[in-house]
Amino acid sequence: MKILYGIQGTGNGHISRSRILAKELRDCGLSVDYLLSGRAKDEFFDMEIFGEFQHKQGFTFISENGRINYLKTALNNNIFRFIRDIFALNLSDYDLIITDFEPVTAWAAKLKGIPALGIGHQYAFGENTPTSRDTWLTRSIMKYFAPAKHNIGLHWHPYNISVLPPIVDMELTRSTNKKHILVYLPFENQKDIALVLKNFPDTQFIQYSSDLITAQTGNVVFKKTSLVEFKQDLKHADGVICNVGFELISECLHIGLPILTKALNGQMEQYSNALALKQLNYADVIEVLSRDNIAHWLDHKTSANIPPWPNVAKAIAELIASNNWQTLKHGALNNETLNLWPKGVKNSQPL
């Protein structure tokens, strides 16, 4: 079986889980090529697992100071180039397209009749999944941005039959040597974040962003985003302050880290994630990153009491390698077939 795997490159969550699944697909002996879109090629980092991947412009969302800028998003994306890339993409050598919300591969597969499997958090949004501040536009984006006939949704609770637990790094563990609070708010104004953190001189913070260079000012260490160093600092963290993206929070839940999280303004998916976290009582959710909100969390932070996530990536890769995934119930790899949900999560009910 020859596979083309499309990965949405806006943010790092799609890439993080795709790295993990890529390793498992390789270990199953599958032949996989990769295509990434959503940011400039020279902005990607630690991409060795994907080999000589293809790159397309695709679509991306532009954010400024913690809010999506829809005007710049519209002006930055070239619809004509996007359509050209879809029709120019050669799929004749492939038996299966996997897409992690990547639109070029998804639409090329749909138009050219190649089986497509969507794997990602966005495919978990069914009728039972909590949603907040959704509109006709946001529902349309979820449905049509990167459509796939078959899909596997990933979420923190089995809201639907085709929803599996998150894909996380099985080697990630929490150190007993807790040193600092890790801060990852890549879509916010980094100077504003640092000013708030300086109100807590007795607490050490490590602040990550692709816009930063390594430096230290008082109790705040600034670091440019990198895979290996970020994972090490995550292991030694005493808590994490982040946006309500899916992958980092999934890793924090996996190793039992307290979470303080704020949704990216104007991003329905993050508002919905925040609602789910509130209902599940998995994290502290705030609307504004303020001194008072951080102070309250530092004094009262607790971690969610749930079991670690299972090796979802390995289960998915093995079932794809068996070449019978299309025959499963509802045409998807589902939680009844794989039975991956930990009992403490599967049997719980959101508040």
From TrEMBL:
<protein>
    <recommendedName>
        <fullName>Glycosyltransferase</fullName>
    </recommendedName>
</protein>
<dbReference type="InterPro" id="IPR005262">
    <property type="entry name" value="MJ1255-like"/>
</dbReference>
<dbReference type="Pfam" id="PF13528">
    <property type="entry name" value="Glyco_trans_1_3"/>
</dbReference>
